[in-house]
Amino acid sequence: MTEDRIRELLREMRDEPVPADSTARVRLAIEARSRSRIAGFRRHWKLWAGILALACAALIAITMREPVGIAPPAVEATQTQIPAEVSAAVSPPPAARRVVHRAPRAAPPRSAAEVIRIETDDPDIVIVLVGG
Fold first, then answer.
1. In this structure, is residue 35 part of a structural domain?
2. Given a cut of 60, is residue 34 above it in pLDDT?
């Protein structure tokens, strides 16, 4: 079959009227399909609404929760503060800065135990603090 013959057949089919029973069958099939979609929606909307409500409640609970506070570790200051006028006079200009690595200072030796004795007006009460 050639292209010209196919075009001719399609033109003939276009000119013929569509039978009424074929039109009725097609319309009934479309109506049944659309009813099944509506029925499926009616059947499952409560399930999807419940899932959506739980998801919203979980989202609200997560956003309204108090953040857990984590205290930063205590850091002891090991450097001594230099007065501003001395540090300005000693430090080189910003473009010429060098990084100097210094060895950490050794901690001063501690005595075996330190004792603080506090006496009160009452001779029976004496506070003794021992550290070391």
1. yes
2. yes
